[in-house]
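Title: Request for sanity check on Orotidine 5'-phosphate decarboxylase prediction

Description:
We are preparing a figure and want to confirm that the structure record we downloaded matches what your pipeline produces today. Could someone re-run it with the sequence below and paste the raw structure tokens into this thread? We only need the token string, no images.
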Amino acid sequence: MAGQLIVGLDVSSRARAEEIVALLDGQVDFFKIGYQCFYGADGFALGKDLLRAGKKVFFDLKLLDIDNTVEKGVAAIAETGATMLTVHAYPQCMRAAVRGAAGSDLCVLGVSVLTSMDDADVAEAGFARDTAGLVALRAQQARDAGIGGLVSSPHEAEMVRTIIGSHMAIVTPGIRPAGSATGDQKRVMGPADALAAGASHLVVARPIIEAANPAAAAKAILSEMNTGTRFA
């Protein structure tokens, strides 16, 4: 169960990131490094050090560029031994990422629709579909591109699972355990419900790293997860 929980190191200090990793030792061994940590806390070097220490690392970089740039960037991340990497779920981008990851164990994830967005945000961005429709389209395109999985809201996890089948990962942010604030997330769900809906991995940051006792917060989330596992 612990392998399905990914803790987001959304901090700007390497010292704080390392402190969180140490506090969670023995409970969590999978960590996400996103923009804040990558740029503010020397996250690339931190990620490589975590990998050398036997941890799993998810570089949440949401790559999107011309095909050659994406392919070469993904290949560089694959060389680190990272477990997961995000790209935006545009068909050309995903196909380029698959080429870049070829021959490695890197699981490339396509980001469908950010969990901070709702139907109004999707419409404002110019898409002629609602959130669920856009996620469904991206899921089909991700499956056809042959990438490792998708990042999507837990609210779309069940639908995505029916489209991509059981072999691809579904990584869900927007996880909020009982009693926690939703913050800037608009499509959230509890840990057990997200797993029951079809998620394979849960990303949790603020409810753990901003808790007075991060280890206790992680333990409580793992306990909630134990009541809802469907996909392992």
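Thanks, this matches our download. The chain has a mean pLDDT of 91.
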